[in-house]
Amino acid sequence: MALVRLTFGQPKHGWVEVHLSIGGKSIEFVASDVPNNPLQQLVDALALSAKGLEATVWWHLEPDGYYFKFSPLQSQVQFQCSFASASRESSQSEVALVVASKEEVLLPVWRALRYFQSFCPDEHDWPSVNFEGLENIRDVLR
Q1: What is the pLDDT along the chain (142 residues), one digit of tens a residue?
Q2: Residue 46 contacts residue 112 (beta carbons within 8 Å)
Q3: Residue 123: what pLDDT?
Q4: What is the distance between the alpha carbons of residues 109 and 32, in angstroms, rounded to a whole number?
Q5: Residue 129: how many CA atoms within 13 Å on its side-chain side?
Q6: Domains (ranges, CATH) in the chain?
Q7: Given CB 3.0 to 4.6 Å as the disulfide criterion, which of 9, 30, 37, 71 pairs with 78?
């Protein structure tokens, strides 16, 4: 069983379903593209994490939020999912956490983003995402 599994639904009118399985826990939510584009944040976070840097993604649920945090931990990556009432970062509570190799954590995220890219959503359904860096990330994870 994979330590991390991430999938997205087809975005509609600024909302996208997110399904995450992390360390045996399943989390499902529907996130907004307002005020940020969390999928663009995820692409950027993946690039940073692949380079061994810390990165956070905010999934706004209006008003609550989930946070995905990627942190380097020696040769591994710590992936934490937290929930915050009213999206207050200071009130985050951990929902799930896993520490594993970059490949075990980041490759499932990379695959999920590639799958989302295949949707080619209309601008009224979801803002554009710059996926250019994904090829470089895949090379780092090999």
Answers
A1: 689 999 999 999 999 999 999 989 999 999 999 999 999 999 999 999 999 999 999 999 999 999 999 999 999 999 999 999 987 878 899 999 999 999 999 999 999 999 999 998 999 999 999 998 888 887 777 6
A2: no
A3: 92
A4: 19
A5: 26
A6: 4-120 (3.30.2450.20)
A7: 71
Asked if residues 95 and 124 have their Cβ atoms less than 8 Å apart, the reply is no
pLDDT recorded at residue 137: 84
DSSP assigned state of 89 = G
Q: Which of 63, 100, 112 is nearest to 83 (CA)?
A: 63
Q: Are 64 and 76 in contact (CB under 8 A)?
A: no
> How many whole angstroms separate alpha carbon 86 and alpha carbon 137?
33
Could you tell me how far CA 141 lies from the centroid of its own chain?
16
Q: Measured between alpha carbons, how far is residue 52 from residues 42, 47, 127, 141 in Å?
A: 15, 9, 28, 12
**In terms of DSSP H, where are the helices of the chain?**
38-50, 102-117, 134-141
Number of Cα atoms under 13 Å in the Cβ half of residue 44: 12
